[in-house]
Amino acid sequence: MGRDLGSWLLHYVTQNVGVQGYDPVLGAFSPPLRLRVHLAAVAFLWAMLLYVWPVFGIPDVCGPWRLTISVWQAALVTIATYRFGLYVIHTVMPGVSDPGGPRPHKIQRQPVWKDCLHHLPSETTWTYLTAQDSHRRSAERFAGTGAALTGEPSGRDVWSEQPLSKSQVGANTKNRIDESAVQGMAWGGRQPGFNPAVNPNRSVFSIACYWCCSIAIVGVVSIILFCPQLILTRLLLFCGFSILSVTSAVASCDAPHRAQLIREYIASGKSPPSNQPAKDLDEAIRKATHFYSMLQTSDGHFSGDYGGPHFLMPGLIVVWYVMGQPSLMLNPAQTALMKHYLIVHQQADGGWGTHVESPSTMFGTTLSYVALRLLGMDAEEPVCQRGRAFIREQGGAVMTSSWAKLYLCILGCMEWDGHNSVPPELWLLPNWFPFHPSRMWCHARMVYLPMGYVYGARLKYDKAEEDPLVQALRRELYCEPYDSIEWMQTRHMVAPMDNYSPVAWMMKTVQNGLARYETWPMLQPFKNDVRKLGLAFCVDYMAAEDLQTNFIDIGPVNKVLNMLSAFHHAGNDLHHSTVMNHMIRVQDYLWVAEDGMKMKGYNGSQCWDTSFAIQAVFEAGLLDDFPELSNKVWTYLERCQILSTEVSQASPAFKYEAALYRRKFYRHISEGGWPFSTSAHGWPISDCTGEGLKGVLCMLKAKSVREGLEDGSLREISEVRLQKAANILLSYQNEDGGFPTYENNRGFGFYESLNPSEVFGDIMIDYSYVECSMASLTALADFHEDYPDHRTEEIVHAIEKGRDFLKDLQREDGSWYGSWACCL
């Protein structure tokens, strides 16, 4: 690159070294420190050789050269040992990121639902709102409370029980919308209503199976040839992704959402695509793009149902109940629709699955049953009778998994002695300690952070002992009297159906030791002192997470637990500003479909779906044929780049991008990346950044976008911003050449032996994934083609390392095993 030695050293230090010593963000020791350790090892071996030389009677034939020869011997021994270690690691031991094969204890049961058609209650008309409209509606709902929404509004999705405005209704009447045609397009030819026995989720699996293999094939071919212009293969890939996004959104048909968007599209004076069959492939692709354009939101993104897990909404309902059932968080219209959702997803055996495709589990059933009772359903209703019978058949709630037990302890339906210790003082360990919570995968880390606070504070519903519903649940959930249960003996109990990832003997040993730590009198003075410090750190860290994410938080589980922790820390003051700012963001996680109201697994997949959709349109050569669609996507992706707009940089989240805060709170670089959902969410991801960057690069080739940038109707995404995206991708690459999800792998393979969760596997560290690697590498290749002068050598080197990683992970039959896709 033509740099002199001084500038090269400066560049190396700023880009690769980071902080001296242990870097908690990268999860590694800095290169200079590692070099000093190696030199120390050489010096140690040298000294040992000098000591043992005379012991073995070796004559001093070297004379004055003896010192030099000893140094070379020591160096050779060190190098040989190091190389042998690498050989063992790479040829004998599987890489930590190798996903392995299917788990040996596959689930043999199959889910079964009653063949029954359900319809949404007609008492309430639900309206979908996005971006500024969603902010205005939330501001109206929380008027006078002091709650404030910060961060970019683009991409935010909420549902309101308030009907459409008069102007919208008037527009619909004026344009004489054929409602039957709207509903026909929204339902996609299916019978209106929701029948769980014929849930169309299953149609997603065949597409995902092919996607799982093609994703790595295209990535490897593109990287090996270093040619991003593999139009045919990329067209197939991106169209497959687009279909996957659409199909996953159709998992519940998403009829209410689609009907409203189609209705508004027609009301604006535009015509829907013809219902006549396409004559050829080109016309079919054009019609598909036309239909998809009807589903584009006003701010430019594509959204849809991102529900599925059954353990998310019950957690929110428990927290809502413990906080006094505030109507600002969940109002009667919402709780009625949540109850409907739980009812229609009950299976024939009386239980609920961990997710919509799962056979019944104690995890899903216990939480769903408790949620229905907290929502007001009588215990003698048939739904509750069947659910209670399922729980008791499995031995009662003592047999549910640890995450469910946590919510039962919070509610007062289980004693904290029945839950294994989650000591918040673990955060006080030095960062370099072999096991430190900061080394965990961020999703696990950010969930166990509030869990540690809740456990350490022994947080419990303050009215549990006098609440008749809680007392009734204590009788209903167990097979023996509540007061007779030896809670300490139930800590490791779990039903086989919940034991997907059995807790290893190592972790059980640790948990048994921590149980003594929690109860032995002689340890209590020490424990009480350090626990206060641990709780204080958790409060500080949770506050930082709330501000970094504009109170959305990384996911729904830590969202509700952070909110509960803030409520408890504020002295159960519901009107505290932090609590209010949490409650106003609860709506970001709720979604309405024909099966009711659910809690999404994230605050949406807006950026992810939109990035793939626009790449599919680009590969089909239709960007300029649909200029409005293209320009709106550009607008969304421009606003969605994290901490890159004036709105996001004016939010409290921006100050946490400073190195001091990132180091303190273990955050990777954020500015310049793209998220899975929205900019306000604040967590960039490697593959989302890669696909967002590729989406922007392909749109720069659209005539309508270029004209919009020239006349000022579209905001510019500067070259500096694109460089920051490429820089983030480079920073994500692990030492094995692969790319993780949110941040570099900071831990070790043995961390999985310390996984305390029975229902989730491989959650303890951030691995290198074939999917994330493909997206990141192809994005770097595309960027390098358009901007060849930016960090050229590093990008080429990163692609070479990534290619080797993908080749190493390829299986003998030529396939790749997907970790973020469905493998059948």
Written account of the structure:
- There is one protein chain.
- This protein has 824 residues and is an all-alpha fold.
- The chain contains 30 helices and eight strands.
- The strands form four sheets. Strands 1-2 form a two-stranded antiparallel sheet. A two-stranded antiparallel ribbon has the order 3-4. Strands 5-6 form a two-stranded antiparallel sheet.
- Helix 11 (312-322) packs parallel to helix 20 (556-569), helix 23 crosses helix 26 (686-699) and helix 26 packs parallel to helix 29 (770-786).
- The two termini are 47 Å apart.
Can you give the mean pLDDT? 86
Arrangement of strands in the largest sheet: 1-2
The helicity comes to 40-55%
Total number of helical segments?
30
Beta-sheet strand percentage?
A: under 5%
Low-confidence stretches: 6-20, 202-251
Alpha carbon gap, first and last residue: 47 Å
Radius of gyration: 28 Å
Counted beta strands: 8
Q: What is the 3D shape?
A: globular
Helix/strand-derived category reads mainly alpha
The main sheet comes to: 2 strands, antiparallel
